[in-house]
Amino acid sequence: MFDLFKAKAEAVSAEVHRFATKKEGLDFIRQLMTTEGIADEPQSYAVWTECPFLEGVDRDELVKEFPGLKFNVTRTFAEQSKIGITQMHWGLANTGSVCQNSTPAEERLASSLSWIHVAILGTDQILPDMPTLLEKVDPKDCAYLAIISGPSRTADIERVLTIGVHGPQRLVVVCIDDLGGTN
Amino acid sequence: MSTFKDSVDKALNNPNLGGALGRFSEAYAVARLKAYEGIDIEALRNRVAAIKGYAAEHMEELAEQFTKMATARGAKVFRARSPQEAKEYIANLCREKGVKKIVKSKSMASEEIHLNEHLQKQGLTVNETDLGEWIIQLAGQKPSHMVMPAIHMTRDEVADLFSKEVDERLSNDIPKLVKVARKELRSKFLEADMGISGGNMAIAETGTIALVTNEGNARLTTSLPKIHVALVGLEKLVPTWADAAPILVALPKSATSQLLTSYVSLITGPTPNDDGSMKEMHIVLMDNRRSEMAADPVFKQALQCIRCASCLNVCPVYRLVGGHVFGHIYTGGIGTILTAWFDELKKSEDIQGLCIQCGKCKEICPGKIDIPGLILEIRRRLVQEQGQSVTQKAIFSVVNNRHLFHGMLRAASKAGKFMAKDGFIRHLPMFLSELSEFRSLPAIADKPFRDVFDTIKQPVLPGKVAFYAGCLIDFAYPEMGEKLVKILNKAGYNVTFPKGQTCCGAPARYNGAYEVAAGNATDNINALLEKDVDYVISACPTCTGALKHEFIDVYENLGQRDKLPKARRLATKTMDFSTFVKQLVDEGKLSFKEGVDLGKITYHDSCHLKRTLHAEKEPRQLLTQAGYEINEMFECDTCCGMGGSYSIKFPEISKPILTRKLTNIKATDCKTVAMDCPGCVMQIRGGFDKEGSKIQVKHTLELLADALK
Predict the structure, then answer these.
(1) Does B501 touch chain A if contact means CB atoms closer than 8 Å?
(2) Tell me: the pLDDT tens digits for B120-133?
């Protein structure tokens, strides 16, 4: 399932990385924040929404390392951020999509306003396809179901594919094997 | 009419348009199939058609259920009967809530009712945020394609528009232009008091609005402003949450050849704003004649549309003239139908005539809508409402009078002689000159087939076949008829030629004159069923389609039910030439000379043979068995531009469609092209003659006649 997910996601220009443990995943995200020059100034923030992945993570330690990292995801921080990190609930293998119950506004701010969307996903949460997802999700508990496949794109000028219009220019999917039931 | 013809000419002479649309349509055909790889397309189309068909049948019930469910989730649902009601509701809401600035994500329903103009008149600032929509908003235009609104514009034109908007000279570099749009529109998103979206679906069971986009603007439109208004037509209703899946599988693949768009959002009721308050969500469910359409036994089918616009992408006419000519807000084939309803029947008068009836859109429509059939129905209703134009009436009164029609064609044969050389008419006098400008026309034969037939000597054979010649074989290509008799004699069939046969009625039907077509049908049925025969065979797919399907359709349409049994009897006996001969070969009644290598040829699929009679394999198998090797051309099943009387009404469109076909044939390097329709032979043979090309254009039966034992 993961291999198909990865192939389909990469086919729509998403970047897919797989790690056995949460620690390795966190190291990767730290590395990305370093590379992207996350700093405590407009245009250089990173925002990270509340999620099960963060349980047991020393946030103070992270903020010390990256003063531009904000766990308090406001409109301003998100709009001025380079990276938005959210944890997704499901993946779809045959379209390479990541899906989330995005009812809390912060989830949508972090995943749509920043330049790079880092989507954390439990490898075991990858479902085969759209019909399976809709069977799994009950809209009673999910006012805003977001299904994201690759970065924002357009071909509205002369049919030339251009990445990064209103949404993120990069979608970086961080799959973690031992996230377990913490979805 | 002259102004419409002017707009056609202008579009045809716009190289940007033809180039961009042409390249796109070629790429689309390939990419669409790739997107559907591994998927049972027919099963999916049936599923989508069933869901949407059910929704159309139960429109009011689903609208009530949707209203109830969405209201229970905290949304306000307003049922707007008319465009005016929809516009006033939104304008009032703006006044009531003190809204000043609005951002919009793409909504065809809002284009349909000219919502922006209405809101701007109230002093509101409205910004489109879909890149294509923003471009045409800045240009003060209307969308020319339902999915890609600005497909008609070049990067230079976009650079000019954006330069004016940001007051800075910009280059035509597309990624840079996109970045400018992001920056400009981002601040508008952040400042907006209200976001207006459309809806790709409204799910009745759950009260959910589905939004399918690529740019991410719909996510921002529905997230950043504190008020979200979704303007949704009643045809977007689907019954259940699970029903959304097949539509989400089909829509992106048919629309843009994507497995899925970048963003799909399923919104069920209001969500929190980022300041902790709850969003106000208003859903305007708009009728504007959709319920009337659902009650129409013929047109309710059009509500199965999921707005993928694939009917535009495969249309040989749309790709030449674009949506500003072929359409009015809603564009292309389906757009013609929607315009006739959501706007008014009369608005579709000019654009409906652009459909050449090739059937390509019907074959790929994910909602399985018979788009060409519905366009014919528009034509029929227009004729009913307004009467035929005087010239058309004169033509059809002749066609309908068999003796007069045949007498005139015979007279034309004598007159044509002055202009005909080696079987072609290359120049026609005065008003007819346009007809032979881009292709030579066949000379009217000295002796029509109906006279030649009497001189053919046939042995007495056990089987009986009635031959239906159709006007072209009868009057232009009698030699095809002679060969057909020879072939069928070999297989043990005597051929009769019932002299009472007349025009198959296609020209009348294609022009909406159903009474005339019904008269043709009755004459032909009486003639062809007069003597008992085993089969009725025609070597013209359009005629075969008339005998097999359309006589029945015309009677049903006119409510002449007493005539149906005989029409059905004729239909069961009727077969097209290649399908019949394939059957004879399979039965061992005909066989080919052995060990013959006749070289490479290419094959052109005639529209009605492939898409009405579904005979694409038979002629290929026969030609291969005969010893030909078939080298397939690019777009082998794309129309040649003939379309019967279409090439007389729109020679300026027929010509470039033909040119494309000739180019594709030449690219195969074959010396011969085969086809099963004398109309296509006339068009393509005439085109090559005009070019001075030596490529042989043959009806399949001409090639088979010499290869049979």
Answers:
(1) no
(2) 999 999 999 999 99
Taking residues B529-546, report their average pLDDT: 97
B272: chain A residues, CB-CB within 8 Å = 103-105
B260 touches chain A (CB under 8 A): yes
Spell out the residues 6+ positions from residue A118 whose beta carbon is closer than 8 angstroms to its own.
Answer: A29, A32, A83, A84, A85, A86, A172, A174
Number of domains in chain B: 3
Chain B residues touching A155 at Cβ < 8 A: 148, 214, 256
B35 touches chain A (CB under 8 A): no
A166/B185 Cβ within 8 A: yes
Residue of B nearest to A94 (CA): B259
Are B539 and B622 contained in the same domain? no
Per residue in A31-78, pLDDT tens?
999 999 999 999 999 999 999 999 999 999 999 999 999 999 999 999
B317 in A contact zone (CB under 8 Å): no
Q: CB distance from A161 to chain B under 8 Å? A: no
Render pLDDT for B37-72 as a digit per residue (tens, 0 to 9). Answer: 999 999 999 999 999 999 999 999 999 999 999 999
Q: Which residue has the higher pLDDT, B590 or B22?
A: B590
Residues spanned by the domain of A74: 2-178
| Same-domain status, B655 and B685 | yes
Residues in chain A with CB shorter than 8 Å from the CB of B263 are: 146-149, 152, 167
Nearest C-alpha of chain B: how many angstroms from A178? Answer: 27
Mutate one of A76, A127, A156, A163 to test the B interface: name it (highest B CB count within 10 A).
A156
**Nearest beta carbon to residue A165 from set B135, B178, B272:** B178
Torsion of CA B700, B705, B706, B707, to 10 degrees: 70
What is the phi-psi region of residue B154: left when phi exceeds 0, alpha when psi lies from -120 to 50, beta otherwise?
beta
In a domain, B375, yes or no: no
What DSSP string runs through B209-238? EEEEESSSHHHHHHHSSSEEEEEEEGGGEE
Q: Does A75 touch chain B (CB under 8 A)?
A: yes
Whether A183 maps to a domain, the answer reads no
**Is residue B328 in some structural domain?**
no
CATH of the domain at B269: 3.40.50.10420
Select from B301, B306, B327, B323 the least CA-distant residue to B256: B306
Those residues whose C-beta lies under 8 Å from the C-beta of residue B401, and which sit 6 or more positions away, are: none
A71 in a structural domain: yes
The verdict on B580 and B697 lying in the same domain is: no
Alpha-helix residue ranges (DSSP H) falling in B36-130: 41-57, 59-72, 83-97, 108-112, 115-121
What is the structure's pLDDT at B16? 82
Tell the burial category of B165 from Cβ atoms under 10 Å away from its Cβ (0-12, 13-18, 19+): middle
- Cβ neighbours of residue B414 under 8 Å, at least 6 residues apart? none
**B271 and A144 in contact by Cβ < 8 A?**
yes
Which domain range does residue B696 map to? 599-707
* Count of structural domains, chain A: 1
Query: How many whole angstroms separate alpha carbon A105 and alpha carbon A103?
Result: 6
Q: What are the backbone dihedrals phi and psi of residue B545, each rounded to the nearest 5 degrees, phi first? A: -60, -35
Contacting A residues, span 35-74, partner chain B, CB-CB under 8 Å: 74
Q: Residue B184: closest CA among chain A residues belongs to which residue? A: A166
Which residue from A106, A87, A75, A82 is spatially nearest to A33, judged by alpha carbons?
A82
| Cβ pairs bridging A and B (under 8 Å) | 172
A76 touches B at CB < 8 Å:
no
